[in-house]
Amino acid sequence: MILLVARDYLCIVDWRDEKLVVLCFDTKGVSAHIKTRYRWFTHENTGLTATQWVERILDVTNCESIDHLDLCGNPQLEMCDTFGQETKLNLNTDFGCSYDFAKKPLEILSAVTTEVKLYIIPFETREEFQTFLKSNLNYLNIQSSTFPKFKFTLDDVLITNALKLNLKHAKLTLKELNLFFKNWMRKKCDSRLEHLIVSTSEKVNARNLLGGLKAVPFPRDRERRFIYSKQLDSLSESFSGGYDIRRADGKKATITYAGYSGPTVINFYVWP
Prior knowledge:
This is Sdz-33 F-box domain-containing protein. InterPro entries: F-box_Sdz-33 (IPR012885), Zygotic_Embryogenesis-Asso (IPR053222). It comes from Caenorhabditis remanei (Caenorhabditis vulgaris). Residues 128-196 form the Sdz-33 F-box domain. It holds the Pfam family FBA_2. The structure is a single chain. By secondary structure, the protein is an alpha/beta fold. The protein has one domain (2-270). It has eight helices and 16 strands. It has helices at 43-46, 50-60, 80-83, 99-109, 126-133, 154-159, 174-185, 206-210; strands at residues 2-5, 9-16, 19-26, 39-41, 68-71, 90-93, 115-118, 137-142, 162-167, 195-200, 216-217, 223-227, 236-240, 243-246, 252-258, 264-270. The chain has a 14-stranded mixed beta sheet. The longest helix is centred in the middle third of the chain and has 12 residues, at 174-185. The mean pLDDT is 85.
């Protein structure tokens, strides 16, 4: 079940008996022409607040929780009370969502949500952002290259307490990536990290990416399967080739990179 939170309304989207069901709740007087599709509810015709309406829909459909929460606007902060009851969902913060409204569900849900996908960065200072990064995250997917008043840096990656971190849009240089790998080998970064995804527009080769790491190439014609410690956006990933590096304590990680028509995507897997 998907809950879409827009500026003037909420929408619940669900599949029931192989049919798409869309139910909407008007919070601020949606224009009549918008209401020509789907079934609409209001406080006047239900006697319910937005939060109560969501809870009622979950109850009558026998749905334990919302699977996907998409924040596109901020109709009322009261909705955050409902967010706190969720235990497993994907959380998106989109462009239409104000910083203040986006922060509260992030604070409530970061530790329990399967994936946090950020299209905006609702933090005006690095201190606020780093406090969020240090929380127990499962999968953090940063879909923005625009930060309000600061640049995303290597220090931010090193302190991020996530099992999986996707930074395809928050660009890092090859020099920064190489330094990150060296910090990992010295155990100077998040110990929970299992998978890091980054991209770069720089030309990548084994020398400029892996210099000083004593990386050992793995045969390109052999496939390996990496299994996450818990269910994230997927349970596992398979890949061929790559370069293995080891820490002094014997912990192994694999670095892969591939670029075709666009930026080069680099993956870093830490084996259990």
